[in-house]
Amino acid sequence: MYTPYSFFYGIWLFVIGVLAAPNVIVSRKPEAKEWIDKLVPFQGWLGAISLVWGIVQVIRFLSKLRWFDVIPLAFITWIVYALILVVIGILLGMNLIKSFVSNEEAKQKMDQLVTKLAPKQGTFGLISIIVGLWIMIDRIFGIAW
Predict the structure, then answer these.
(1) Is residue 120's pLDDT more than 60?
(2) pLDDT tens column, 69-101
(3) Are 50 and 92 a contacting pair, CB within 8 Å?
(4) Dist. CA 121–CA 87, nearest whole Å
(5) Is 37 helix (H, G, I), strand (E, B) or coil?
(6) Closest by alpha carbon to 128, among 28, 43, 19, 6?
(7) pTM score
(8) Structure letter (DSSP) for residue 126
(9) Are 134 and 77 a contacting pair, CB within 8 Å?
(10) How many CB atoms lie within 10 A of CB 16?
(11) Longest alpha-carbon distance in the chain
(12) Please, which residues have CB within 8 angstroms of residue 28's CB and are 6 or more apart in sequence?
């Protein structure tokens, strides 16, 4: 059967969730700071890739919406996964994405979007970690599919 997400996607969500909520993670596990610091240089690219892949997943989800009645838990997981990718992708990758944009008005709109989402970045990061773990568990035990 077709599954819209894999074990790798759970790992990806976990990693970007850690990057989005480093203060929460480090406050509970100070030794994690060293690992997080190794990932920070790649934050922009991870965010940009997440944003693009999240948009692709939202479109794919909408094209398969007719299957929602058959397997609702899997589709709820899929849309949450896709939306979290988009939101964290915006938060982590916007500075990199802005470097490719020359229109100042577009850059200002990007800054406004990030400003609206930034206060909830830690929350989105924790949701990403939880959903990432859920996807990994689901892929191991086949719960939703």
Answers:
(1) yes
(2) 777 888 889 999 999 999 999 999 999 999 999
(3) yes
(4) 9
(5) helix
(6) 19
(7) 0.90
(8) H
(9) yes
(10) 28
(11) 49
(12) none
Residue 59: what are its φ and ψ, rounded to 5°? Answer: -65, -45
Unique residue bearing structure tokens 């990693």: 15
Tell me the two tokens of residue 35: 């690992």
Which range, of 19-23, 70-74, 82-86, 122-126, averages the lowest pLDDT? Answer: 70-74
Amino acid (one-letter) located at 142? G
| Joined tokens for residue 28 | 């509970």
pLDDT digits (tens, 9 = 90+) for 30-60: 998 999 999 999 999 999 999 999 999 999 9
- The token pair at 76 is 């709820």
Query: What's the pLDDT band for 1 if we cut at 50, 70, 90?
Result: very low
| CA–CA distance, 38 with 104 (Å, rounded to integer) | 32
User: Whose CA is closest to 107, among 99, 118, 117?
Assistant: 99
- Cβ distance 49 to 89 under 8 Å? yes
Q: Look up tokens 């692709």; give the residue.
A: 56
Calculate the alpha carbon distances from 61 to 30, 74, 81, 82 in Å: 38, 11, 10, 8
